[in-house]
Design goal:
mainly beta; Hepatocyte Growth Factor; Jelly Rolls; 3 domains; 1 helix; about 0% helix
Length: about 425
């Protein structure tokens, strides 16, 4: 659920989003079913509304699904009965034993032409989220972009280091966001012309520059069934690497969001510079030949989903992400799964959303005491380089320049960000 702080000159509105678990009591299937003491761990146990996180009452009742053990791969799927814009998925892992079995999972969304169980996953799946490692007890994942689909599938490969490996789910909740988009900001990079310093091919599939502005926020570069790339990739071990987008016209650029690769090699995206250019001659041969404006420099590895406000609102048409070679054992390159570039349409209006899956990173030396959320939001709005603000119940207001996506946030302190 999100809360919105909407600033319209001096007006202030706080409202809450409405979300619905559309998986509850819907038809589900799984790759196989294991019987525990004669009781089947059927697929419906993952969406019956019972969030009990122990497998069983011996010989009486099972509370969680259970596939056969030691298969090559496992899956569980649910038919939502109609297409939805799917926002997030919450998974309840088993806690009484064997939690490590639920690890390295893929969550896919499908919108098949023929809506039946025999066809539901025969067309390309949309990757909602990939979780590396053991899934926490209660895990909520926001999809990498609202994905339209009717079927949701949780998939994992056989865990070779896990005794008696299988897929066990105590509950799965699938949420849609019914709140209308109240934001006054545009991602002006979407589907715009882009270039990069070089292009790397994996099994004949190119890591082309447009994969960073195609609207697909999947953070696995080359997911199963391994027939297409979802992230850009330059050739390895170049001295410098860059990626750039032509926004088509000049804008007052406010912030940039970057989706790093999560399945491997996240440390390649490190020590990056984000530049904005407003060239006299607007073409690819001249776009970066004049003075650059530094939007932001991030030292170290870029988080999975990273948001940065420019040091100030910069006027420009081209945005370029640049990095220099670093020594890595498996080869260095520039890989971007998605890049979003935001502008503000007006200087005195805007929307701040309470963030339920983000935490602030780099703070600004700006603080207020004993203020309202409205006053804190207006303070952020009037401060160059402010992406969002944190406010306590006592009214302590702090401003921040960057943030990252996280699985769990500190709910005792509210964090709001431009949206």
């Amino acid at each position: 659920m999100q809360e919105y702080v909407i600033l319209l000159l001096t007006n202030f509105i706080l409202c809450q989003g409405l979300r619905e678990n559309v998986a509850l009591n819907k038809e589900s299937r799984q790759s196989s079913t294991h019987y525990e003491k004669g009781i089947p761990g059927v697929s419906s146990l993952a969406n019956d509304g019972n969030k009990h996180q122990s497998l069983e009452i011996p010989y009486i009742q099972l509370f969680c699904t259970h596939t056969m053990v030691n298969e090559l791969n496992y899956w569980w799927g649910v038919d939502l009965e109609q297409e939805y814009a799917i926002n997030s998925v919450t998974i309840f892992n088993r806690l009484d034993c064997c939690s490590d079995r639920l690890s390295d999972i893929y969550i896919y969304v499908y919108a098949p032409t023929i809506a039946s169980w025999s066809h539901f996953d025969q067309q390309s799946g949309q990757l909602c989220f990939y979780h590396q490692g053991v899934v926490p007890g209660i895990f909520s994942a926001t999809c990498n972009g609202n994905l339209h689909g009717r079927y949701v599938k949780i998939y994992k490969d056989y865990g070779y280091n896990i005794e008696g490996d299988c897929l066990t789910l105590c509950e799965v909740e699938v949420y849609i966001d019914e709140t209308p988009n109240t934001g006054l900001r545009d991602n002006v990079a979407l589907h715009k012309d882009s270039r990069q310093s070089s292009t790397y091919y994996i099994s004949g599939s190119p890591g082309s520059s447009f994969l960073a502005v195609d609207g697909n926020q999947q953070q696995v570069a080359y997911p199963p069934p391994f027939n297409e790339m979802f992230c850009t990739s330059t050739i390895t071990n170049d001295l410098v690497c860059w990626w750039a987008v032509d926004l088509g016209q000049e804008y007052s650029i406010n912030s940039v969001t970057i989706f790093n690769r999560l399945d491997c090699c996240s440390d390649r995206l490190a020590d990056i510079y984000i530049y904005v250019y407003a060239p006299t001659i607007a073409d690819w041969s001249n776009f970066d030949q004049e003075s650059s404006q530094l939007c932001f420099y991030h030292p170290g590895i870029v988080p999975g989903i990273f948001n940065a406000a420019c040091n100030r609102n910069l006027q420009g048409r081209y945005v370029k992400i640049y990095k220099e070679y670093q020594t890595l054992g498996y080869g260095d390159s520039l890989t971007l799964c998605e890049v979003e570039i935001y502008i503000d349409k007006t200087p005195y209006t805007g929307t701040y959303c309470r963030q339920m899956n983000k935490e602030p990173l780099l703070g600004l030396p700006k603080h207020l005491q004993h203020v309202s959320r409205k006053r804190c939001a207006m303070y952020c709005r009037q401060t160059e380089g402010c992406l969002g603000f944190r406010i306590t119940t006592e009214g302590a207001c702090s401003l921040f320049k960057t943030s990252q996506k996280v699985d769990n946030v500190n709910t005792a302190v509210d964090y709001y960000e431009r949206c």
